Amino acid sequence: MSSTLSQAGKSIRTGRPHFTGSHSHLPQRRMALTVVVPAILYYLILRYYPVGQTLFLSFTNATLLAPDYQFVGLHNFVTIFSEPVFLKVLWNTTYYAFITTALTTGLALGIAFLFDPIRRGVGLLRLIYYLPTITSAIAIATIWLWFYQPRFGLFNQILALFGTPPIAWLNSLAWAMPSLIFMSVWGGVGFSALIFIAGLQGIPSSLVEAALIDGASERQIAWHIKLPLLSRVITFVFVTSIIGSFQVFQQVYLMTRGGPLNSTRVLALEIYEDAFQHLKIGQAASIACVLFLIVGVLTIVQLRLQRSDWEL
Amino acid sequence: MKQHTFSRRQFLQMSALTSISITLAACTQVAAPASSGAAAAPTGDKMTITIWGWWEERMKFFQAAGDDYAAENPNIEVLVETFGDEIWTKVFAAVPAGTGPTLCKMQTTNYFKLRDQDLLVALDNDIFPGTNLQEKYPNHGWDQYGFYCIPEGVQTAIYTYNKAMFEEVGLDPAAPPTTWDEFFAAAEALTVRDANGTITRAGFQYDDWLFAFNPLYQLGGMIVKRDGDDITANFNTPEMEQAYQFFLDLNQQYQAWDPNFPYISDAIGNRQAATGISEAWVHGVYKTDFPETFAELGFSAPPTPTGEANPYYGRKNAVLSLALIKNRPAAETEAGLKFLEYLVTERIDTQFELANISGLVPAHVDILNSEQVTGDEFLTLGAQLAPREYDTVEVSDSLNQIMADTLNRILLEGQALAGALEQGQADFQALIDAGEIKHVY
Amino acid sequence: MAQVTAVTSSPASSTVRSGYWPHIFQRMHLLNYLILIVGAGAMLFPFLWMFSTSFKPRAEIMVFPPTLLPATFTWQNYANVFDKLDITQLYINTGYVTIVKTSLMIYSAALLGYVFGKFRFWGQDFIFYAVLFTMIIPFEVYVIPLYQMMVFAKIGDTYSALILPHMLSAYAIFLFRQFMFTIPNELIDAARIDSAGEWYLFHRIILPLCGPVLATTVSFYFMWNWNDFLWPLIVITSSKRAMLPVALATFVEQHGTDFGMVMAGATLAVIPVILIFIGLQRYVVQGIALTGLK
């Protein structure tokens, strides 16, 4: 839109307007007030206040069912960090987040580049890749639990067809986490791929044309032009995927509940069980704070990476 | 222009952030101290009594009784809601906030939590005169902790076996094993393997809930040492060692048990396992979910080490029925109490039906000899195993986790039995120290 | 140059220098298709398997080796699901809540995006970043206090409690704000000169311009709201107001052994979202791409 206009030679200002001229500002002020003030109230009441309560809780020994509690300062934090299980939980969650994201992003990139040159049948194919993303977690978990059943599941039946003994998948120390990761990658690759596809489509054709004129092959174009141009998007998708993966819960809760000997125990599960099994919401709140902190740090990293100057 | 790259970049950012962060969002919760807010009393002329439970087959009986009750009392409506595993999340969120049900089916571990937090209405000790509930259920801890829940029955451990498979391998279906040795031999004989040596039909499958208690109690072991009201962990004992060895032998020596098989009710129901030792309620699952296999099944007392009849056939615990939930409008709680009375005094048939799928009849002479019991194979067995003992300590999910972890350490990590038990001992003691195992009977 | 302008206005890579590498080009595309189709097969397989199992009778599900297509086709599983679950009611409930939530979310996001993007007022940046900040707070961090507020306001177990905490979405606001930056101020000034009221301006001029973003956000949020699990789990207790994902979870737990029926239930739960996505998917990618294009 604005580009067409600018090509027409007019200099168009976009972004926020400077209110010049003799228009009265009152109607605008009124609108701004009517819109922004309720929004502020909304966020204060329905977000900041409950979050504040949680932060507050993390310094108490509150329990889920009882109304009274006492301040215990940093006791909760000391407790969780001195438990070896918690350190394992941190490691598990980090491992899961990074591996899943790396695999998902890498595969998604590959898929996006494969999609790039083709035109026909794209709609249907894209939809198929996107299917896992739009399906609810419980439906997916039900299917994959059957795939992974340690003795009679579909995967083991397929192995049996090849004469291989069954693998205990979700019951096995070595395979439980990889099984979860595999399922998550399957579930997440379509979504990231879609973003990358859109990103690729947004690359100005003039750049590619110029390269072609200069005699570059498709592969060279892909590697030396498109990929670097996508790097912003890639970074972004990568970091936000990691943020999301750190919060993984439903898959673990539905499939392994922390897995054999805590090998798939993750932060969010720990929060849930502390709150609902051990009824220790003070402690659960402190773990939530740790999670919040990690997510915050990652977000800052992402913002920094994007602030770096990168003219396109 | 910088503006546009900013927009595209940020747009993509938002799209991804939206779906990734939100779609993958965890669903865990952190709570603030419970606020007491009584929910608004139901308007309209009908008083609705809500009952929450988790097993549809069982809740059907309550609904049927409820409908009959509503027919007699036109201003009352009984509504039964069944939830899955998530019921306790709902209960813990709703009950302190005052939006819980009138009555709720109880389960031992969560019953303790609710009772201790004063979220159940205490019932008078001489409630429902003429029913002799205390006499029928002597070991419920009434004197110590008060009366908060109508009992439904008592569970025992039972031995389930597939008679058709018995015949197949030449065992007598009318004479199930009574000693451990016979039991091991039978399990071994019933196991079927494929060409690669992988088990295709297991001779035995266990019920993974507190499995070690069965052999432990049979051997006369105890999981805690008592000193008045104080308890210390007693996990690392010769009896416990033998109890674990029971399962390890099945797995390694007789190779009749593969812990990777589906849950006992699915395994036996789908004919993937031949025998099993489980809590009595699993009987009800076979009856309702696997009727064809159920016709082939036989039930008996679990085998004991030496074969002699033993009050400690295995773990026994109370099946708790409905409890009255607090924080509801007084009129509703009142109506709930009346419905409970109706159930206990006038609807003994519901009790039998419930016993038939979930537990065994109370240890009371006149009921044990009644036709309803003697005419039913399962109830007769239950009456014979009429339990008198109860868990010595209140059990919890964490204790079950410790038991499971100990077994997994041996089977998956290859730890030695002694070392694994030592770790279990340490973990259990930590649990006691943290105050999670509070009550001793 | 002339050769190259044969290019279409869309994506760059369809540029073909005809006659230059025709053979290799075609081969590459074929290879692309091949790999993508194999990949699509992997994506699709679990769904196909779910779909196929839902039509198998119980005996066939346990059989070994597993059959891909049902040897005996039966509708019984679906009949059983309809018997045990009030599917129509679930569809209506979930549909109603999703539509209301999504509409409110998108409308408010457009409005707030417009105000944050095109207006100037004191504290604007700070407020905006404060709103943005809520995005990174994981939901589990504030779920229960939120629930207790709902109870306190006496709206527990109502649709209002379901909708209220998710009425505004910081992401969507951000999206729309970014989009607003691309709308030329002159357009707005011109409308104001014509004495268009501020609200008229928003509804009649700004909103229609947001087409692509609207489509994209509607698709995303519809799907997300439909699949919402935790909040409906806690808030809704009566079965007549039950939501589909929660009901499905309970259903699976109750009847896990009847696998065919479980798969039928899962299929029924998944189909509406898929259908909607088929309808909107063109806009989804268009929306993402269009907004980013100059």
Question: Can you describe this structure?
Answer:
The complex is a heterotrimer of chains A (about 300), B (about 450) and C (about 290). Chain A has 13 helices and no strands. Chain A is mainly α. Chain A has a single domain (about 85-305), classed as MetI-like fold, CATH 1.10.3720.10. In chain B, about 45% of the residues lie in helices and about 15% in strands. Chain B has two domains: about 45-155 and about 320-385, 3-Layer(aba) Sandwich (D-Maltodextrin-Binding Protein, domain 2); about 155-315 and about 395-435, D-Maltodextrin-Binding Protein, domain 2 (3-Layer(aba) Sandwich). The longest helix of chain B is centred in the N-terminal third of the chain and has 22 residues, at about 1-25. Chain B has about 450 residues and is of the alpha/beta class. In chain B, strands 2-1-3-12-4 form a five-stranded mixed beta sheet. Chain B has a five-stranded mixed beta sheet with strand order 6-7-10-5-11. A two-stranded antiparallel ribbon of chain B has the order 8-9. Chain B is globular and about 70 Å long. Chain B has helices spanning about 1-25, 55-70, 85-95, 110-115, 135, 140-145, 165-170, 180-190, 215-220, 240-255, 265-270, 280-290, 290-295, 330-345, 350-360, 365-370, 370-375, 375-385, 395-410, 415-435, and strands at about 45-55, 75-80, 105, 150-155, 155-160, 190-195, 200-205, 225, 230-235, 275-280, 295-300, 315-325. Chain C is mostly helical. Chain C has two domains: about 20-75, no CATH class; about 80-290, MetI-like fold, CATH 1.10.3720. Chains B and C meet through helix 1, strand 2, helix 3 and helix 11 of B and helix 6, helix 8, helix 11, helix 12 and helix 13 of C.
